Amino acid sequence: MNVIKKTLGALMAAGVVALCSCGPKFPELPVAEVQPYFGDAAKTKAIDTAFYEVKDAKGNKLGTVLFSSPYSDNIKGFNGPTPLLIALDADGRIKTVALLENEETPRFAQRVVEGGLYEAWNGLTVDEALNKDVDAVSGATYTSNGVKKSLEARLKAYQRQTK
After folding, report:
1. What would the pLDDT profile of 16-59 be if each residue is shown by its tens digit?
2. β-strands 84-89, 94-99: how paired?
3. In Å, what is the CA distance from 30 to each residue of 27, 34, 51, 65, 68?
4. Each residue's pLDDT tens digit, 48-65
5. How many other C-beta atoms lie within 10 A of the C-beta of residue 74?
């Protein structure tokens, strides 16, 4: 996850994406970073700075990795933004939602994990996830709400990108 943070940080610090005559060039996402979610991953293809297709060695699409940043950077949990990684399988169903490096109080972030919030969307399509009413985890309401709003912002952006 360290590479993901550095890649996103460098892009945000630069504030621009390098352009060439062939169109935008986006940073690579190392395969090792997506293998926990896609064990057969052999290649990633950047669609933009927060949207990657994941493929196997034969070029078959395994799924998609989305990052909530920059789409959710203005959404705060208890101590700041709640950046997420969202992995979608080849059918567009959510495989995993994971909190990336953040400034949340560790005990609140752990309560959210233990409360099962991230698993609440597993197996759902993007539309289903956006329409699901997920309760906040007791004792970590601000963090939970930050996660829910970050997920919603990113999935809505993904819908716009794929229409």
Report:
1. 444 444 556 788 899 999 999 999 999 999 999 999 999 999 99
2. antiparallel
3. 9, 7, 13, 12, 18
4. 999 999 999 999 999 999
5. 10
